[in-house]
Amino acid sequence: MAHVDFDQMPPEASQPPDRRSIRPGRRRADRDHRMRAAAAALLALCGALAVIYFVFAAIGAVDLVDAAAASVVALVLALLWLAGLWQRARSNSAFATRDDRERRGF
Q1: What is the pLDDT of residue 27?
Q2: Backbone phi, then psi, for 78, in 5-degree steps?
Q3: Residues near 43 by Cβ (< 8 Å), separated by ≥ 6?
Q4: Which residues lie below 8 Å from residue 90, measured CB to CB, with a gap of 6+?
């Protein structure tokens, strides 16, 4: 068996390959996945805020006419949320709720 002297090797041969150089197309896919997840989280937040506002308006805690600016903001958030839902349904993307998940306790 031959003895390998690592001090005599060039520096790039003695170091393990960089993780990013192994699969160069993977970085873009990871970034796209993170951007889609962030957009989904932002749309979910828009929907949640709009629903909370309109629930408070429905029980009478908020007067829609007196709080016109807040009502317009809530309406815009609701429209953004609905536009995101419509785009997701139109593109046949999978929704977060999956029927094929294991259901424990049932």
Answers
A1: 76
A2: -65, -40
A3: 80, 81, 84, 85
A4: none
Task: Look at residue 68 and give its three-state secondary structure.
Answer: helix
Q: What is the pLDDT of residue 22?
A: 52
| Residue type, position 37, single letter | A
Tokens (6 digits) for 100: 């094929």
Residue 34: pLDDT over 60: yes
Could you report the per-residue pLDDT of 40-94, keeping only the tens digit for each? Answer: 899 999 999 999 999 999 998 888 888 889 999 999 999 999 998 888 888 876 6
Query: Do residues 79 and 43 touch, judged by C-beta distance below 8 A?
Result: no
CA gap 92, 88 in Å, rounded: 6
What angle do helix axes 68-90 and 24-58 make, rounded to 10 degrees? Answer: 140
Q: What share of the chain is helix, strand, coil (3-state, %, to 5)?
A: 65, 0, 35
Give the C-alpha separation, 93 to 88, whole Å.
6
Q: Do the Cβ atoms of 56 and 62 come closer than 8 Å?
A: yes
